[in-house]
Every structure is written in structure tokens, then in C-alpha cells.
Design brief:
The chain has one domain: 4-Layer Sandwich (Purple Acid Phosphatase, chain A, domain 2). The chain is of the alpha/beta class. A six-stranded mixed beta sheet has the order 1-6-7-8-10-9, covered by helices on one side. It has a six-stranded mixed beta sheet with strand order 5-4-3-2-11-12, covered by helices on one side. Strand 6 and strand 7 form a beta hairpin. It starts with a strand and ends with a strand.
Length: 236
């Protein structure tokens, strides 16, 4: 994976909104936290849009509306830019965003190279000044690595933050599992490694998972000049 450093000090990490299945109140509270803490970077850390309509899984026909999914996500991005006019906004590709490429490659290969059908074009990244982060990119907040989570394999276990530690072996934060957790490990060298999962901002019940232990949440990250960081997990 390639790595890019994000040189910001106050960061709001939002994961797994799954538009149009987002939790409006949880999203609103998360953005209010961002304003209160005067964040200057917002990371949409994967699965911002659900792409339910083009999923390979069995889907509810009543909710199969691709235009609605795209339009609601676009409206959210325009609103986000309006509320945080000076912030750097980074849109991380998650496994649900990857459904677009999978669909085009398997169902409409001839259209797959059209720039008009790219995620960046469909969701109007350029007009909103949003940077796209592909799935193979690891974002860096000082010494903290940021990934969506699906790139690390099966981290959604009983203790996802610990599973992330076993895969990453470095300070890291992820979403993907829809659960909030943290794990701290001191190595034999005396080094402290910290890993986190943020929770989600979607509805807590889905057709495929009506009984689960998902949790609405987000993370506020403060990064010092020397790369040290502080992660504040917030339950919403």
C-alpha cells in the first residue's frame, strides 16, 4: 500500500455512513463535534455511499434506487463543504465504493473507462474540493495510520481493535466493523502500539443483520508536530 501523510492537527474521522441508510441524528452530532473542536481535516473513512442497488448480494427491490443513493450522497458532500469551507476533506474508498468498479467490470465492461462514470465524477468531488483516497492508500496522521478496514482482511472479530493490531503491527485506526473498540499493547522493546475502530454512522439495523452489536460513533484525532497523536472515540 502507498502511504501519504496528512499534515493537519485536528481531524474528524467519519466512517460507514452508507447513504441513503445513514443515521441522520448520529451524522448531525458528529458534524457538531467537528465544529466544536474546530477540525481542519475531515476523513470520510470508507463506505460513505452504500451502492445497495448494484450490490452482488440479494437486495430489497423497494430500496433499489441508484439515483437516490448518488443524489443523497452528493447533497451530503455539498453540505459538508458548506459547513467546513476551509477544511481538507478526504474521501476514502471502502468496500462499498468498490462495488461501482466491480459492477462496471462485470456488467458493463465497455463503460468502465468512462471518466463520467468514475466515483469522483458521479459524486462531484472536484466542485467540492474533495480529495479521493483509493483503497490501497494508507493515510497518515502523524504516527497514526488510517485505513477503512476491509484492506486488512478479517478484522471484524469479537475484538476488532485487537485484530487490527495483529494485522497492522503499528498505530492504526479503521472503520468497517461498525463497532467501536480500542487496544493498547506494549512490545518487548517497551514500545506502545495503539489501535482503534470508530463505530459507524448508519442505521443500526439492516435487512441482512437485524440483531447485531453495531454502535454509532466517530473519532476526533489531535496530531502534534512531532507526530504524536491523541484519539478521542465518541459514541453518538
Amino acid at each position: 500500500m502507498t502511504k501519504k501523510r496528512v499534515n493537519q492537527q485536528r481531524v474528524l474521522i467519519l466512517s460507514d455512513l452508507h447513504f441513503p441508510f445513514h443515521n441522520y441524528q448520529a451524522v448531525k452530532q458528529a458534524l457538531e463535534l467537528g465544529k466544536e473542536n474546530k477540525v481542519n481535516t475531515i476523513i470520510l473513512n470508507g463506505d460513505t455511499i452504500d451502492f445497495h442497488a448494484i450490490s452482488r448480494f440479494v437486495k430489497n427491490p423497494k430500496e433499489r434506487n441508484l439515483q437516490r443513493e448518488i443524489e443523497e450522497t452528493k447533497l451530503f458532500l455539498y453540505s459538508l463543504r458548506k459547513q467546513f469551507p476551509k477544511a481538507e476533506i478526504i474521501f476514502k474508498e471502502g468496500n462499498h465504493e468498490a462495488r461501482l468498479t466491480t459492477y462496471l467490470w462485470t456488467r458493463a465492461e465497455e463503460f468502465s473507462d468512462l471518466p463520467e462514470l468514475s466515483l469522483q465524477s458521479l459524486l462531484h468531488f472536484k466542485p467540492n474540493g474533495i480529495r479521493f483516497s483509493e483503497k490501497n492508500e494508507v493515510l497518515r496522521l502523524g504516527k497514526l495510520s488510517v485505513i477503512h478496514g476491509h484492506e486488512a482482511g478479517g478484522i471484524c472479530t469479537v475484538y476488532p481493535a485487537r485484530s487490527l493490531f495483529l494485522t497492522a503491527n503499528t498505530d492504526a485506526i479503521a472503520g468497517h466493523c461498525h463497532r467501536q473498540s480500542s487496544f493498547v499493547k506494549r512490545t518487548i522493546k517497551g514500545e506502545i502500539i495503539k489501535t482503534y475502530t470508530t463505530g459507524c454512522l448508519c442505521e443500526l439495523k439492516a435487512d441482512f443483520s437485524t440483531h447485531n452489536d453495531w454502535m454509532n460513533g466517530c473519532a476526533l484525532v489531535t496530531v502534534e508536530g512531532n507526530g504524536d497523536f491523541d484519539v478521542d472515540l465518541r459514541t453518538l
